[in-house]
Amino acid sequence: MFREMRRKKQLLPEDACLAILKKGTSGVLAVLGDDAYPYAVPLSYVYHAGKLYFHCAKAGHKLDAIQSNPKASFCVVAQDEIVPEKFTTYFQSVIAFGKVRILENGEEKREAISLLAEKYAPGGAGKQAEIEKGWNALCMLEMQIEHLTGKQAIELAKSHGMP
Predict the structure, then answer these.
(1) Phi-psi region of 123 (alpha: psi -120 to 50; beta: other; left: phi over 0)
(2) Furthest-apart CA atoms within the chain: distance in Å
(3) Which residues pair with 40 in a beta bridge?
(4) 104 DSSP 8-state letter
(5) In the 8-state DSSP scheme, what is residue 29?
(6) Is the Cα torsion angle 144, 148, 152, 158 positive or negative in sign?
(7) How many Å apart are CA 29 and CA 89, to the nearest integer?
């Protein structure tokens, strides 16, 4: 169903992919937009237990696309170091594929926004009050990861002892 990576020597192991998802702060969600054009939008997110969570407005291009076709991909770039003298970049990135759903259940929605709030304001006072203040306008999305792949520059793979 999902393609295998062509350059297997550059494949990141699953634990490295998950570490990138846990540490990252933003990525790009790609969905099938209007007139079958791809629509890619940068978002903050949180990873938890095989799922990605995003918050958004209750209306717009992204939601229309998800309601029409829930399949999506989400890309996080962990490293992008330009090395001009070698005409290359030392990069690491991860792409998650899966289906996105709008969280309708209040308990699921509250858990997801709490995870997101804890990631971006760990231990911060006032999180619950802020969540309550914006609750009626809040829309939360959940992406169940079906396939996860990561890639790194060949130079990084070699430096990490990969063949």
Answers:
(1) left
(2) 53
(3) 30
(4) -
(5) E
(6) positive
(7) 23
pLDDT digits (tens, 9 = 90+) for 112-139: 999 999 999 888 778 888 888 888 889 9
- Residue 47 neighbours by CB distance under 10 Å: 24
**Whole-prediction pTM value?**
0.89
* Rounded Cα gap, residues 124 and 113, in angstroms: 14
CB 30 within 8 A of CB 74: yes
Q: Which residue do the tokens 């998950």 mark?
A: 18
Cβ neighbours for 88, distance < 8 A, ≥ 6 positions apart: 153, 155
Pick the closest to residue 75 from 17, 157, 6, 144 (CA basis): 17
User: Lowest-pLDDT range, 4-13, 91-100, 144-153?
Assistant: 4-13
* Contact yes or no for 145/114 (Cβ under 8 A): no
Is there a contact between 153 and 93 (Cβ–Cβ < 8 Å)? Answer: no
Element (H, E) at 32: strand 26-32
Q: Residue 32 contacts by C-beta under 8 Å, 6 or more apart in sequence?
A: 38, 39, 65, 68, 69, 71
What CA–CA distance (Å, rounded) separates 128 from 134? 10
